[in-house]
């Protein structure tokens, strides 16, 4: 049985994991890379990778049995431009992103990421300031960061964090505060479920701008100031 949620702050999940060589993950490692954080059982990337085979796809997920099942399916289809890895994104990704060749990362998606709605569970959420800065450092100008959720209390702090960094802008034509449509051609499993229930999905596409990422302390202080306006 696969657990519904795992606590990313548990001691077991604090162990950093090594990033395998890209040549061990992908048949053509120099292709542009789409990183999906919180890939779960991986069906979104499995479909997208077959629809748009021109880039590589990496799904990361903290529930190991889901990663193993996704990898088994990927291997059975012989897809050399898709891979799933087990890790806690908040523990391992910062190092992994720094190891990527400059310019390789084309798009990052974080979709329906968290079961942690309560304010006291903020530290369990996937998009922490240090991860956002690592993403900003790895994404070249114009590259994409796509966020979506059905829970306003989850997506609103993610958007505030991205905006506080100063490193991303929205495409000028996008409606605010949320995009009307999904810019990606494949819905995720959670997205299908939410839409089938007639419930709203909140989406934002960000494009990396030319700004240097701020120091972590500066970003954290600006978030504290936003949370506690004078
Ligand atoms: C609600 S599911 C959504 C899955 C998929 N993105 C979708 O939209 O259908 C969120 C996923 O993020 C994973 N996740 C949560 N925290 C994580 C972390 N720190 N590192 C990696 N994966 C994480 C969870 O285990 C879960 O599979």
Percent helix among the residues?
A: 25-40%
Helix-strand category: alpha/beta
Ends apart, CA distance between termini: 48 Å
Counting DSSP H or I runs of 4 or more residues, the number of helices is 8
Integer-rounded radius of gyration = 17 Å
CATH architecture: 3-Layer(aba) Sandwich
Largest sheet: 7 strands, mixed
Averaged pLDDT: 93
Order of helices and strands: HEHEHEHEHEHEHEH
CATH topology: Rossmann fold
Spans of at least 5 consecutive residues with low confidence:
none
Short summary:
By secondary structure, this protein is an alpha/beta fold. The protein has a single domain, classed as Vaccinia Virus protein VP39 (Rossmann fold). The chain has eight helices and seven strands, in the order H-E-H-E-H-E-H-E-H-E-H-E-H-E-H.
Task: Give short descriptive properties of this protein.
230 residues; globular; 17% strand; alpha/beta; binds S-adenosylmethionine; Rossmann fold; 8 helices; seven-stranded mixed beta sheet
List the helices and strands and how they pair.
Blueprint: H1 22-25, E1 33-37, H2 43-51, E2 56-61, H3 64-76, E3 82-86, H4 89-99, E4 105-111, H5 129-138, E5 144-149, H6 152-165, E6 168-169, H7 189-196, E7 202-208, H8 216-227
Helix pairs in contact: 4-5
What does this entry look like structurally?
The chain is an alpha/beta fold. It has a single domain, classed as Rossmann fold (3-Layer(aba) Sandwich). The protein is 35% helix and 17% strand. The protein is built from 8 helices and 7 strands. Strands 3-2-1-4-5-7-6 form a 7-stranded mixed beta sheet, with helices on both faces. Helix 5 links the parallel strand 4 and strand 5. Helix 4 runs parallel beside helix 5. The longest helix is centred in the last third of the chain and has 14 residues. The chain is globular, with a radius of gyration of 17 Å. The protein starts with 21 loop residues before the first helix and ends with a helix. 35% of the residues are buried. The mean pLDDT is 93. The structure holds S-adenosylmethionine. The site of S-adenosylmethionine has 18 residues, from strand 2, helix 4 and helix 7. S-adenosylmethionine binds next to strand 2, helix 4 and helix 7.
């Amino acid at each position: 049985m696969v657990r519904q949620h795992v606590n990313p702050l548990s001691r077991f999940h604090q162990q950093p994991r090594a990033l395998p060589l890209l040549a061990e993950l992908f048949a053509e490692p120099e292709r542009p890379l789409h990183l999906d954080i919180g890939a779960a059982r991986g069906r979104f990337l499995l479909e997208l990778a077959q629809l748009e085979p021109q880039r590589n796809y990496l799904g990361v997920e903290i529930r190991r049995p889901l990663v193993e099942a996704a990898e088994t399916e990927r291997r059975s289809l012989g897809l050399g431009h898709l891979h799933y890895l087990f890790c806690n994104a908040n523990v391992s990704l910062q190092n992994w992103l720094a190891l990527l060749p400059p310019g390789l990362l084309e798009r990052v998606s974080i979709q329906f990421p968290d079961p942690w709605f309560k304010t006291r569970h903020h530290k369990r959420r996937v998009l922490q300031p240090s991860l956002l800065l690592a993403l900003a450092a790895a994404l070249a100008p114009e590259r994409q960061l796509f966020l979506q959720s059905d829970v306003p209390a989850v997506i609103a702090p993610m958007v505030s964090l991205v905006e506080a960094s100063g490193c991303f802008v929205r495409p000028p034509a996008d409606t605010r505060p949320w995009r009307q449509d999904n810019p990606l051609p494949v819905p995720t499993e959670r997205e299908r479920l939410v839409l089938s229930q007639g419930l709203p999905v909140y989406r934002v596409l960000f494009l990396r701008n030319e700004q240097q990422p701020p120091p972590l302390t500066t970003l954290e202080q600006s978030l504290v100031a936003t949370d506690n306006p004078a």
